[in-house]
Design brief:
The chain is an alpha/beta fold. 37% of the residues lie in helices and 15% in strands. The chain is built from twelve helices and twelve strands. The protein has helices spanning 46-55, 68-78, 90-102, 118-126, 143-148, 172-181, 206-210, 240-249, 257-268, 270-293, 314-324, 343-355, and strands at residues 33-34, 85-88, 108-113, 129-134, 154-160, 187-191, 216-221, 234-237, 305-309, 326-327, 329-331, 335-339. It has a seven-stranded mixed sheet, with helices on both faces. A three-stranded antiparallel sheet has the order 9-12-11, with helices on one face. The chain has a two-stranded parallel ribbon with strand order 1-10.
């Protein structure tokens, strides 16, 4: 007699998503800063908070399953057809919809590694096979190697730019050449969760590239720059057959009425929000410059975090940060990602790095 329900065997060794550690509970004697989850350190704008409060009076009702007003606002903001927009529970939720709609058992999904740690989880849950292509020595996507990894089983390619957790973004000419070489039946997702923090004018804009490429899908989120990480709302822009498939794979009523309302209000207040983004970018420049002066080979970053390649010293550096009052995100044996937070938090990080001599 069986011990219990028979579950899918391929879930036995599925990697576990490791969220950024939370800070100590209120009342702790030491001030702790959370730099482990790439969150926006600023609270929502007063106008957005008021919208959230107003929307909360409707939580006894199901939200608009099709997020009609939000889809219209996104379409208008980025000058795309409304039927090219699909929303979901954060960009990771939309990414799951993408994987489910393209890949299953026997199929392959290509992505750089290390990159966003949800990718291997989503691929394995779908029953597909991950094809991980190592980053270059400069922490960038090796696009030539990714092209070489394509087989007749490839159904999806995920391109994270700026890359999480290392920071570099892909420039336009490189990405255009890559996209032009990918067979048209393979969907390429340009994951731009951090696009609002990009300042290099040569970095590719996924929305520009998708317009005349039916096999390109752009993935974005309201979690980072817009400061709505706790409400879980992201979106994809893709040509109609792809967007329609994503809508079919969405969890019904997944994006709450509060999340939809807050995202719409955030788009309306975008000029004010992007001033905050500019402040974060200025801190990013200050932190990276300080680390480089200390001798750290921190790669150029276009996101709201910096990357330390530490290898076997990773856990020791993370522990030193925690002792000093900042929580960072270690990837044991590889390196540490530290978000850009409040100036005081960034100062602590820079001081720890100064005391922890670079290799």
């Amino acid at each position: 007699m069986a011990d219990g329900p028979r579950l899918r065997a391929n879930l036995d060794d599925i990697p576990t998503y490791v969220p950024g550690r939370r800070v100590a509970a209120p009342g702790a004697t030491q001030r702790m800063y959370k730099l482990s989850s790439n969150e926006n350190p600023f609270p929502p704008l007063p106008s957005v908070l008021q919208t959230i409060t107003d929307a909360s009076t409707w939580i006894n009702r199901y939200p608009d399953m099709f997020a009609t007003e939000l889809v219209s606002a996104i379409a208008e903001r980025f000058d795309v057809p409304a039927n090219h927009v699909a929303v979901g529970t954060g960009s990771v939720g939309v990414c799951q919809q993408i994987v489910q709609s393209t890949a299953g058992p026997g199929d392959e999904v290509i992505y750089a590694w290390r990159s966003f740690e949800a990718y291997p989880i989503l691929v394995q849950v779908s029953g597909a096979t991950s094809v991980q292509v190592p980053l270059t020595s400069t922490e960038k996507h090796d696009l030539d190697a990714m092209l070489a990894a394509i087989t007749d089983r490839t159904r999806l390619i995920l391109v994270c730019t700026p890359n999480n957790p290392t920071g570099p973004a892909i420039r336009r000419q490189r990405l255009e050449r890559f996209l032009d070489a990918v067979p048209p039946e393979i969907l390429v997702v340009v994951d731009e969760a951090y696009v609002e923090f990009v300042r290099d004018p040569e970095v590719a804009d996924g929305l520009e590239l998708y317009r005349d490429r039916p096999n390109v899908c752009v993935l974005r989120t309201f979690s980072k720059a817009y400061g709505l990480a706790g409400l879980r709302v992201g979106y994809a822009v893709a040509h109609e057959p792809v967007a329609e498939a994503l809508r079919k794979c969405a969890v019904p009523f997944g994006v709450s009425v509060i999340a939809q309302s807050a995202a719409i209000a955030s788009l309306a207040a975008e000029d004010e929000l992007l001033k905050r983004v500019a402040d974060i970018v200025a801190e990013r420049v200050r932190v990276r410059d300080a680390l480089r002066e200390q001798g750290w080979p921190v790669p150029p970053t276009e996101a709201n975090f910096v990357w330390f390649r530490l290898s076997e010293r990773t856990d020791a550096f993370a522990a030193a940060c925690e002792s000093a009052g900042v929580i960072v995100r270690p990837f044991s044996g590889e390196g540490v990602r530290a978000s850009i937070g409040e100036p005081d938090a960034n100062d602590v990080l820079v001081q720890v790095a100064a005391d922890f001599a670079p290799a």
